[in-house]
Design a protein that fits this description.
Its EC number is 4.2.1.10. With about 140 residues, the protein is an alpha/beta fold. Helix content is about 35%, strand content about 20%. It has a five-stranded parallel sheet with strand order 2-1-3-4-5, with helices on both faces. α3 packs parallel to α4. The relative contact order is 0.20.
Amino acid sequence: MKKLIIINGPNLNLLGKREPAIYGSLTFTEFFDTVKKKYANVDLEYYQSNVEGEIINKMHEVGFSYDGIIINAGAYTHTSIAIGDAIKGIETPVVEVHISNTFGREEFRHQSYISPNAKGVILGFGMQSYELAIHSFI
C-alpha cells in the first residue's frame, strides 16, 4: 500500500469560505473525506499549516519514509526558497499542486520555488488537481 501525504500551506484551511469563485465552496476536510474513501487502497494523510517552518519540519519528518508528497504550498510557492530547498533535501518524490491556474492569475504567481525540485506540477483543475497527483503515485 502506497503511503502518501497531502501538505497544504497558508490560507488553504479557509477553503470553502475563501474566494469561492476561484477555490470553490467545498472545504478541504469534505474533499479529503471523499478522497480517502475513493482511494481506500492508499494510506493517505493530510497536514495543513500556515507556518513555513512547520511545513518544512513535516517534509523532513516524512521525506525519507513516505512514497509521495503532494504539496500545495499556497503563496509560499512563490516566496519560499526554504521549502524548495527542503524538497531538494529529501528522498520522497513531491508533486506540486494548485487548485487554480496560477499562470492565469497575478504575475508574481507565475514563479515557483517548488517546481524545479518536484517530480511534476498539476494546476488549474480545481480540487481534482489533488486526485491527479494521487494517480501519479499509483
